[in-house]
Every structure is written in C-alpha cells, then in structure tokens.
C-alpha cells in the first residue's frame, strides 16, 4: 500500500564520520549492528561513550531516521539528505519517535529492537549552523524533544535494502516511552 512503512535509503561508514554513505544494501548482524559500519560491535562504539566506559553494551547498533524529519527542517530553511545525519536506515511513513521501547521492526529478514532516542549533539551544527535547534527542542512546558531518530539493536541478522517494507510489532503492555540512549 502507498502509506505502508518502508525503507527509503540505507547507509554505512567504516570511519567515525558524521554523515554516512548511501548503499544499495546493508547487512545487519545479530547483537553487533551494521556490518562494515564504525558503530559495529557488541559493546559501545560511540567515541564519547567508549571514553567513559568501553564495556557498556551497544544499544546504538542501528540508527533510524524518518525522512519526514527532513521535510520538517526544510520548513525552517534547512536542506538535509538521507545519510547526512549519520543514520543507517532512512524510513518513510513510520512514526519512529512515537514507538515504545522494545518495539520490533522487521525489515526483510532482519529484526531491529528499538532501544531509545538518539541524543543529538553539537556536531549537527557542523553540517548546517543552527540545525541542532531544529532536532533538539524544548517545548513551552519545558519538555525536551529529541527528533534526530531512534537507536536499536539487531535481534535477527539479515539484509536491508531501499524499498523494503517495515513491519512493526509493539511490545507487550505496559508501553514505555523512548528515552535517550
């Protein structure tokens, strides 16, 4: 169907660079992440987190962003393309930010379990000055909104390609909102 959740693009980078290169497919390995990506591993790979405690489990194996975020920031004058915010998977028609912790996303043969929200950092302003304020906002009530995508772990290995449908399986109730990981 036209509004079914789908993969728009996939990305990986072998080095710790901010943006990731478009690929025709990526391979996800259970418990490790995106094969060939700098964040691949059972323990944390994000440089600042490695410095704090390299033995932490890697809850950030796969980064997903909805393309609708690019439409939102375009309204404020920013142009962002798939892969530029460092995501591995760019989706369409999927409210990633509204999913609860533990949601399972089946994409092709692979399964990703959502662990939490990406906590955007100042490097985003290196892409375009002021962009961080578009993806890290404070509401009138003082609530912090993190809009830079969700993180997950690979629960079943498989290939992911642009055009793959995304099947969403919510965890049992009670549902817990996503928090930064």
Summarize the structure.
Helices cover about 10% and strands about 30% of the residues.
Can you walk me through this structure?
- This protein has 181 residues and is mostly beta strands.
- The chain has a single domain (6-169), classed as Beta Barrel (M1 Pyruvate Kinase, Domain 3).
- Helix content is 12%, strand content 31%.
- The protein has helices spanning 47-52, 68-74, 124-127, 132-135, and strands spanning 6-12, 21-23, 26-29, 33-34, 62-66, 89-92, 104-107, 110-117, 136-138, 144-146, 150-156, 158-160, 166-169.
- It has an 8-stranded mixed sheet with strand order 2-1-6-5-11-8-7-13.
- Strand 7 (104-107) and strand 8 (110-117) form a beta hairpin.
- The longest helix has 7 residues, at 68-74.
- The relative contact order is 0.24.
- The model has no long low-confidence stretch (mean pLDDT 94).
Oligomeric grouping of the chains = single chain
Total domains: 1
Strand ordering within the main sheet: 2-1-6-5-11-8-7-13
Largest sheet: 8 strands, mixed
CATH-level-2 architecture: Beta Barrel
Task: Tell me, briefly, the overall form.
Answer: globular
What distance separates the N and C termini?
33 Å
- What value does the average pLDDT take? 94
**Unreliable runs:** none
The ordered string of helix (H) and strand (E) elements is: EEEEHEHEEEHHEEEEE
Write the layout of secondary structure elements.
Blueprint: E1 6-12, E2 21-23, E3 26-29, E4 33-34, H1 47-52, E5 62-66, H2 68-74, E6 89-92, E7 104-107, E8 110-117, H3 124-127, H4 132-135, E9 136-138, E10 144-146, E11 150-156, E12 158-160, E13 166-169
Parallel strand pairs: 5-6
Antiparallel strand pairs: 1-2, 1-6, 3-4, 3-12, 5-11, 7-8, 7-13, 8-11, 9-10
